[in-house]
Structure to design on (219 residues):
């Protein structure tokens, strides 16, 4: 499902020069598996996730998703990949502030011009327990509710791969646990592949596999 090999990534800054963040990162993940990537702040976790999401390109190496090396895709194919094959969940939710909960969840379907948008949105709203908040804007929702909207939005396109960057990082312990329960329930019943980046050991422990990113390498 997901296969990285020899992935290097460095950043060039005018004053500090080149910073090597990822150095020959490689791993293999089977479909339907959940993987946690932990590591200290600045170890490159978000950088790694951005590469898998096709938001940035590695300096070297290959990133295969379902057999296709996403590093070789042209801009149009990459846009299709980002829209249909993967979903991201972020620490700070990244919801559209001027759209309601229901509209945020429906957005990926609108972009992909899919059908049965209302029906599918209602179903997801129900699954994340937010039917009664459908018309609320993100500013009128609690943090846990916002993240449930983001989870619903991530699942609505039925992506093969879900990438989550500190999905409970902005939530209190109790709310974080409930949101994690929901995420893992939905991911496991739909047999999705999930990569979670987190400092949170409880969250990491819920994944089938755990890897630690340290000195540019995964262990
Ligand atoms: N666009 C960029 N330009 C320059 N340096 C960058 C850029 N993005 C990330 N870095 C550097 O790469 C390193 C890894 O950053 P990254 O955000 O991947 O860490 P992280 O493991 O996600 O940290 P955290 O746990 O704090 O979120 C850091 O040293 C950071 O300063
Ligand atoms: Mg990060």
């Amino acid at each position: 499902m997901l296969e990285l090999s020899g992935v290097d990534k460095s950043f060039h800054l005018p004053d500090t020069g080149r910073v090597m963040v990822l150095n020959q990162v490689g791993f293999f993940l089977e479909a339907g598996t959940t993987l946690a990537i932990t590591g200290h702040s600045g170890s490159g976790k978000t950088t790694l996730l951005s590469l898998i999401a096709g938001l940035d390109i590695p300096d070297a190496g290959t990133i295969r998703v379902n057999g296709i090396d996403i590093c070789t895709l042209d801009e149009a194919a990459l846009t299709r990949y980002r829209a249909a094959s993967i979903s991201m969940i972020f620490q700070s939710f990244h919801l559209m502030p001027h759209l309601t909960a229901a509209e945020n969840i429906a957005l990926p379907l609108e972009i992909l011009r899919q059908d049965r948008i209302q029906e599918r949105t209602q179903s997801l709203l129900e699954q994340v327990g937010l039917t009664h908040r459908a018309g609320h804007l993100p500013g009128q929702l609690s943090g846990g509710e916002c993240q449930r909207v983001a989870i619903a939005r991530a699942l609505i396109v039925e992506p093969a791969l879900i990438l989550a960057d500190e999905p409970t990082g902005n939530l209190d312990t109790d709310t974080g646990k409930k949101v994690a329960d929901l995420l893992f329930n939905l991911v496991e019943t739909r047999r999705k592949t999930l990569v979670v980046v987190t400092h949170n050991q409880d969250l990491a422990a819920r994944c089938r596999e755990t890897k630690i990113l340290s000195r540019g390498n995964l262990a």
Observations:
- Residues 31-41+74-218 form a domain with the Rossmann fold fold (CATH 3.40.50.300).
- Strands lie at 2-13, 17-29, 34-38, 60-65, 68-69, 86-90, 161-165, 193-197, 209-214, 217-218.
- Helices lie at 45-52, 75-84, 101-111, 117-127, 143-156, 173-189, 201-205.
